[in-house]
Amino acid sequence: MQPQAELAVADSFWLLNYDDNPRRASLADRMLDAGLAGAVLAELIIDGQLVLLEGNSTVMTNPTRLPPKDEVAALVMGYITRDPTPHTVRRWVADLAGIVTPAICERLAKTGYAHLTGNRLTGRRYVPQSANVAAGPGVRLRYHMSHPGQVQSWNVLVLAGLVLVTGMVAVVARESQQVATEQLRALAGRLPPVILSVLAAVEAEIVSAPLRPNR
Predict the structure, then answer these.
(1) What is the DSSP letter of 189?
(2) For position 210, what pLDDT does the model report?
(3) Which residues are within 8 A (CB) of 187 and not within 5 positions of it... i.e. 6 or more apart?
């Protein structure tokens, strides 16, 4: 039986980070932030809101598209349209890392996938609504890893790529990590160059993340 319908890429990636432990993310904050920034940029490119020029490097808005209604997408488009200087996708991943994370958590809370926990002393943070909710994207991704011919959207392919560049193969592997890596590479290899450049930017930001201060 095929798993539940997919979420937005960024929402799926956030939940996937809690697949092993619904109370604690697998990735460090800065690595998670970079992945989420890349996920939203990929969503906007797939939706036609953004285009990449000059060898899939420079991010430009698409003037023929109406502003997105989704709050996370609108947040990112607001940052990009307000900056008169074109920047590379690598620069935008770095600038948006951390900025999009709270908005994604709020979107998940509004749809019932996450909720706030903790208090003023321990700190308030979002966690998945349940262990089953956290496991959903991983179940779906593993299904398509075993049934690649049944992929019907870009979202699964982007999520596979994000798992690879953020080093989260162990989260989705249930037996051999080598087999899981090969399956994920096969899925991500079907992405167009423009999305692969976003994944490369996420990977580059993660490599530099240890040099950046904690939030």
Answers:
(1) T
(2) 59
(3) 144, 145, 148, 151, 156, 157, 160, 161
Provide long-range contacts, Cβ within 8 A and 24+ apart, for 4-7: 4/136, 4/139, 4/140, 6/137, 6/140, 6/153, 6/155, 6/156, 7/113, 7/136, 7/137, 7/155
Whole-angstrom distance, CA of residue 52 vs CA of residue 62:
10
What pLDDT, in 10s, does the model give residues 65-98? 988 999 999 999 999 999 888 899 999 999 999 8
Structure tokens, 139: 């179940």
Beta strands across the sheet bearing 58-61: 50-53, 58-61, 87-88
Q: Are 18 and 128 in contact (CB under 8 A)?
A: yes
> Mean pLDDT, to the nearest integer, of 92-112?
95
Give DSSP secondary structure letters for 88-144.
EHHHHHHHHTTTHHHHHHHHHHHTTSEEEE--TTT--EEEES-HHHHHHHHHHHHHH
Amino acid type, 212: R
Q: Distance of alpha carbon 162 from its chain centroid, rounded?
A: 6
Report the alpha-carbon distance of residue 4 to residue 136 in Å, rounded: 7
- Tens of pLDDT, residue by residue over 125-143, are 999 999 999 999 999 999 9
Please name the residue that has the structure tokens 């999305």: 195
